[in-house]
Amino acid sequence: MRLPATRTRRQGFATAAVLALLGGLFAVPSAADPAVTPKDVEAAFHKAEAMNEQVNALEVEAKQTQAEIDDLTADINRDLADYNRQKSELGDAIAQQQMDAPLGPSVNLLSSGDPDQFLAGLGAVQALNSTRADALEKFGETSKELKNRRAQLQDRKAELAAAQKDADAKRDKIREHYTDAKAELARLTAAQQAKFNASDTSMPEVDASGRAKTAIDFALSQLGDPYVYGGTGPNGWDCSGLVMKAWAAAGVSLPRVVGPQMAATSRVSMDALQPGDLVAYGNMQHIGMYLGGGKVVHAPRPGKSVEITSLSGFSVGGRVG
After folding, report:
1. 79-116: per-residue pLDDT in tens?
2. How would DSSP label each residue in 173-209?
3. Which CATH superfamily is domain 199-321 in?
4. Annotated active-site positions, please?
5. What is the pTM of this model?
């Protein structure tokens, strides 16, 4: 598969722009700080990425909670309509009874001198009271259901607010970790920084077929797109966002976050990987897609773009569907 010339030029411009931006952000010393290594910088960036996956998980949770809130609100509206209708019917029945027999239907029957009429009327009164009792019981059930759903709604709203607050706090942490990582990067030499931020976007030869080929083709078509925290495309990606959308292009729905994505696969040993298999770090903080020949396509971290890398660091494999 080959990218169009315009796409290749766009990737070149994007990579150059990212490097130029990084060059402007960091005061580059003439010599490296001996206390800092590229491995240290990589670890600092991965701290931010790990926190990003936690935020992704919280956002999934918030969406699920919001869906529950929407369902509960719809249920409450239906219950409220039933409540008001039943209340109105009971009120109308009681009002009509008072108009027809202010002292109650049983008192009117007592004044009847006809035993047959009395017995027939008594049966009618009992039937009326039974019907009214059923209506009252149903009204009570509706009232109880309405009260329960309103309590559930308040609980879900509290859960949503807590998840949003937690996500905001973690986003602040991401910014802190990212600032620390940039500071670490600035302590490397200019040559080390350039090498550290270089991305391999060369198009590999991949032997794949079926849905795996479709997913791989999608991922490879994003080569050169920048890493973006929380990115799910179309022009910026984080690691799990790229994997999710790549397999979605092949008609497979994967969860949003690394851990659940791997849990949705069948575990495969690292020496039995096939193109299209998912590969992740053991701590479930990073994920990519295996291409064969020891190569992986992934969205690495801020400052880099979707790229081809080695299996180094990946220790868990999984096969989709």
Report:
1. 889 888 887 876 666 555 555 555 454 545 445 545 55
2. HHHHHHHHHHHHHHTS-HHHHHHHH----PPPP----
3. endopeptidase domain like (from Nostoc punctiforme) (3.90.1720.10)
4. 239, 286, 298
5. 0.65
